Amino acid sequence: MNLIEELRWRGMVQDIMPGTEEQLLKEMTTAYVGFDPTADSLHVGSLVPILLLVHLQRAGHKPLALVGGATGMVGDPSFKAAERKMLDLDTLKHNQAGIKAQLEKFLDFDPAKPNAAEMVNNYDWFQNITFLDFIRDTGKHITVNYMMAKDSVRRRIEGDSGMSFTEFTYQLIQGYDFYHLYTHKNCKLQMGGSDQWGNIVTGTELVRRKADGEAFAFTCPLMKKADGTKFGKSENGNVWLDPKLTSPYQFYQFWLNATDVDAANYIKIFTLLEHAEIDALIEAHQHAPEQRQLQKRLAKELTIFIHSEKDYEFALKASELLFRNDTADVLQTLTEDQLMDVMDGVPQVEVSLADLQAGKDIVTFLAETAIFPSKTEARKMVQGGGVSINKLKVEGIEKSIDTSLLLRDKYILVQKGKRNYYLVIAR
RNA sequence: GGGCAGGUUCCAGAGUGGCCAAAUGGGGCGGACUGUAAAUCCGCUGAUUCGUCUUCAUAGGUUCGAAUCCUAUCCUGCCCA
């Protein structure tokens, strides 16, 4: 199976330019994917393009990871409803560094290898290009008509929020990246999410007109859940790759919570498991869906891939303890070390021991620990039966919190809903 | 620069002097069922010491009373130059 066939099987090819497959079969090809420095960490959504690069490199080609220092200053308008917020330079620099550090984990940068991965930053070449140079040398090659015809742009123009010139320029800037990499790195292929198709094609067009060369492209489908909602969100927002932002436990839980339909798709896209194994897993899952073998394997593979074997073991242990039926009893028997071990990835909040000794009503307690943003919300949630303490459901707002609830004289396990845990530590 | 239409709670979008913390839909959250699934059903979705308080672009004003009327300002879209 060649690379494209492989990716097709995994459901990772949306649009592909004619000749791309032939190019990949012909020779070792350099290809790139761009990453936006909108935050200082990548999130699970960025995993798809990362995996494109990983597959590419495994197939013997050379991956380039482009960090969009320059494009990040402009903001990609593609399919966005409204004008993007501008990030200041310091933030951008900080974000670029963070993303770069993460990407280094997933690709092989060993310079001894002919297909060693490389990291590039488009700010490096854009910082020296003046506006006049750019519009004369590059802008000339592409018509506004062409740019406006792009679906990603047309929607904004036809919408009622408009689009600034800055954002309109974006596809040209990105297109120039491709041209630059083509001429400087012999890069002939750009990949990305399907929302990038328009921008990518502008790049191949520039390569053709300005360098008289031939460049290729393919995109992968934008990740969505089976019900059409956005992929990569949990109750607490984005699921990040940075363990400081999303702990390995939370990360593990994210994948474990995938629906059956999603899990079957994810396992192909996000893991490097062989076909036979994936087929077997899917079949096993269909026979006994309640065992959730797919989700468990998916969560395991991803947690190890992004974090580590050890992180996975902690996440697994914590998950098994927190979600078993007799947890309320087990909790009481755990030693402090065992507790800390298991609760490692659970968000922790502190409360003063003196306050607890005095006793506190549940609503105030939940609001002060910031487990809920306001007393009103805390009260509603308790009344709706959505809060448990040490795995026992809180029956009413009269409940008072005091030292008698402490586990090992120090901890209280608060549960919001079915699967959101907080460890309160008394100090 | 001129004309027109707009800016409402997370989003879309009603409301055009009191019955408005503001319809409806979506999203989100929670509950029941279950498998930490899907589907379905139910509840919540500004804050609160439950007296009220702060909100309908911003600042003033009219009025007993304004999201709704007036004035200025800012922002957006469309058309004309």
Automatic annotation (TrEMBL):
Which Gene3D superfamilies does the protein's record reference?
Answer: HUPs, RNA-binding S4 domain, Tyrosyl-Transfer RNA Synthetase
Where ATP binds, per the record, is at 233
> Reaction catalysed by this chain?
tRNA(Tyr) + L-tyrosine + ATP = L-tyrosyl-tRNA(Tyr) + AMP + diphosphate + H(+)
GO annotations under biological process? tyrosyl-tRNA aminoacylation
Which PROSITE patterns has this protein been placed in? S4
Q: What class of enzyme is it?
A: ligase
What CDD domains does this protein's entry cite? S4 (cd00165), TyrRS_core (cd00805)
Location in or out of the cell: Cytoplasm
Q: Where does L-tyrosine bind?
A: 32, 170, 174
Major localization class: cytoplasm
> Under which EC number(s) is this enzyme classified?
6.1.1.1
Per the record, GO CC terms? cytosol
The record, for InterPro entries, names:
aa-tRNA-synth_Ic (IPR002305), Rossmann-like_a/b/a_fold (IPR014729), S4_RNA-bd_sf (IPR036986), SYY-like_C (IPR054608), Tyr-tRNA-ligase (IPR002307), Tyr-tRNA-ligase_bac-type (IPR024088), Tyr-tRNA-ligase_bac_1 (IPR024107)
Q: Where is this motif: 'HIGH' region?
A: 37-46
The free-text function statement in the UniProt record for this protein reads: Catalyzes the attachment of tyrosine to tRNA(Tyr) in a two-step reaction: tyrosine is first activated by ATP to form Tyr-AMP and then transferred to the acceptor end of tRNA(Tyr).
Q: Which HAMAP family match?
A: Tyr_tRNA_synth_type1
Please state which protein family the record places this protein in. Belongs to the class-I aminoacyl-tRNA synthetase family. TyrS type 1 subfamily.
| Classification via PANTHER family | TYROSINE--TRNA LIGASE, MITOCHONDRIAL (PTHR11766:SF0), TYROSYL-TRNA SYNTHETASE (PTHR11766)
Name of the featured protein = Tyrosine--tRNA ligase
- Organism, as annotated: Chitinophaga oryziterrae
Q: What is the lineage of its organism?
A: Bacteria, Pseudomonadati, Bacteroidota, Chitinophagia, Chitinophagales
Source gene? tyrS
